[in-house]
Amino acid sequence: MSFIILPVISYTSIYIANRMTMEKVGFIGLGNMGYPMAKNLERAGFPLSVYNRTAARASAFAAQSTISPNVETLVRKNDVIFTMLTNDEAVAVVYDIIVKQEIAGKLFVDMSTISQKRSQELAATLRSKGAAFVDAPVAGSTVPAAEGTLIIIAGGEAADIVRAKPYFEKMGKLTKHVGGNGQGIAAKLAINYFLSTLYQGLAETVLFSESLGISRTDMLEIINESASGSGATKVKTPLLVNEDYKAAFALDLMLKDVLLAQEAGADYPLTKPLIETYSTAQKEGFGEQDVIAVINYLRKK
């Protein structure tokens, strides 16, 4: 008896491939993170439209993609729309425009880090108008954004994650679906709460060791080669060694996220001291520098 071996067909893959041949992609927000993320979608060959409030920021997309003159045009002409914006206020401005459009059947993916409550309210509003919504903040800063190695933390319906995943795969190395709408934001706030403690602890450790006569370079090497080290300590080491605090992740944004974590329920022994440190450092003029510039505030203190 002979057997015919038939190829295994993934109907999910066929579904995704068919949708991708039809769907047009829009990206709103070309800041430090949004720009390289959108560039990765462009390089992958997706039919892409972009919009940025500061139009000059979009000019580098002119050769291969469409530069939309406004939010309304981008939403009207695209099926899957990504947003990567600075804060709740910026998200509110953009989505107040979006919800006034005809959006039934479209998928909106907000990759900003905003209030969990506001993200859930936004999801409910969009769904009431027949659109789908995924909150998908990312773990990682400008370097992994450029390399396409972000961690994408998604909250929403499983079918909507499947629809977004081909695009996620060009922006990140891992997509983690953690639950319904708002749960992506919840996980991101928890991660950044942890990082806020780590970066202040790293800064204090470097200052303490220097006060005892240990060089900054030596201490950072010891940390990074021991169990104390992590990707987070290693990525901040060149900034600390060179004392170059150009923002990969600004102190302003860290303060925003710790305050959002507090709003979401974080109330632990370190919560208020962290807020005090980062808020005072912001007032002292360190807000636009990288978060690890908190070391200079702590030195002054």
Automatic annotation (TrEMBL):
GO MF annotation, one: oxidoreductase activity, acting on the CH-OH group of donors, NAD or NADP as acceptor
Keyword Cytoplasm: no
Start and end residues of each 3-hydroxyisobutyrate dehydrogenase-like NAD-binding domain: 182-298
InterPro entries for this protein: 3-OH-isobutyrate_DH-rel_CS, 6-PGluconate_DH-like_C_sf, 6PGD_dom2, 6PGDH_NADP-bd, HIBADH-like_NADP-bd, HIBADH-related, NAD(P)-bd_dom_sf
Record-linked Gene3D superfamilies: N-(1-d-carboxylethyl)-l-norvaline Dehydrogenase, domain 2, NAD(P)-binding Rossmann-like Domain
Keywords, comma-separated and alphabetical: NAD, Oxidoreductase
Provenance organism: Sphingobacterium nematocida
Catalytic residues as annotated in Swiss-Prot or TrEMBL: 188
Stretches assigned to the 6-phosphogluconate dehydrogenase NADP-binding domain: 24-179
Nucleus keyword on record: no
Record GO biological process: organic acid catabolic process
Annotated protein name in UniProt: 3-hydroxyisobutyrate dehydrogenase
Superkingdom of origin: Bacteria
